Amino acid sequence: MKDLRKLTYSAMLLAIAMISMVVKGAGSVFVIFITGAIVNACIIIDTYLCGLIWGVILSIITPVAAYFISPNPVHQTIPIVVPCIMAGNAILAAAVALLGKKDGMGRLNGFMLPLSMLTGSVAKSAFMGIVISLIILPNMLPEAMMGKLAALQFSFSLVQLFAALVGSVYAFIVLKIVGRRAENL
User: Fold this and answer.
1) pLDDT, position 69
2) Is 108 helix (H, G, I), strand (E, B) or coil?
3) Per-domain residue ranges for the chain?
4) Cα(60)–Cα(82) distance, rounded to whole angstroms?
5) Neighbouring-strand partners of residue 108
6) Res. 101: pLDDT tops 80
7) Which terminal residue of the chain has fewer beta carbons within 10 Å of its beta carbon, N or C?
8) In the CATH hierarchy, which fold is given to the domain comprising 2-182?
């Protein structure tokens, strides 16, 4: 029964993440920050409530879904970016799973969870900033897109940090509100 409950939570969080990707396709500049934050929040919530495996599954599915739902010119031109995003998401999930412990009563730990989210956000953006922004983009970006290199590097480093931190705030608020009911997984 617990596995079915975890599957249900994960499916709902995946649906929320995918809906945010559809909205991203609408094209507003600010929607990118909202979409990334929602996807990060879904990964954090899923990892915290259901465990690392479920968080990693969501970390893998969301970039693939984004590839098809809201195509990005960089993803389409350099598909190797997608597995790097998966790895960045998995780093965030791993930090939450390893550091975001519950207290002895099974309740949300007020200090360790935010610390795990902060650590995961920084580690995710550092990984993506180094691998995508500093290695992949300068070496694989087509010549026609090189004029956008600085903006793309910013997008795959600091924007990722901002989105992960905002997603962490969203996740913390949601977990504080529904945490006690949902933690009985």
Assistant:
1) 85
2) strand
3) 2-182
4) 9
5) 102
6) no
7) N
8) Arp2/3 complex 21 kDa subunit ARPC3 (1.10.1760)
Residue-level pLDDT at 181 = 62
Tokens of 49: 């409530």
The contacts of residue 90 (CB under 8 Å, 6+ apart) are 55, 56, 59, 60
DSSP annotation of 136 reads: I
Rounded distance between C-alpha atoms, residue 163 and residue 160, angstroms: 5
Which span out of 52-56, 149-153, 180-184 was modeled with the highest average pLDDT? 52-56
Which candidate, 148, 39, 17, 152, places its Cα nearest to that of 88?
Answer: 39
Residue 163, classified by CB atoms within 10 Å of its CB into exposed (0-12), middle (13-18) or buried (19+), is buried
59 Cβ partners below 8 Å, 6+ apart? Answer: 43, 86, 89, 90, 92, 93
For the chain, how are helix, strand and coil distributed in percent, rounded to 5? 80, 0, 15
Q: How far is CA 172 from the centre of its chain?
A: 14
pLDDT of residue 70: 76
Q: Which pLDDT band holds residue 62 (cuts at 50, 70, 90)?
A: very high
Q: What's the pLDDT score for residue 1?
A: 65
pTM, two decimal places: 0.89
H or E element, residue 46: helix 31-50
Of the chain, the end-to-end C-alpha distance in Å amounts to 9
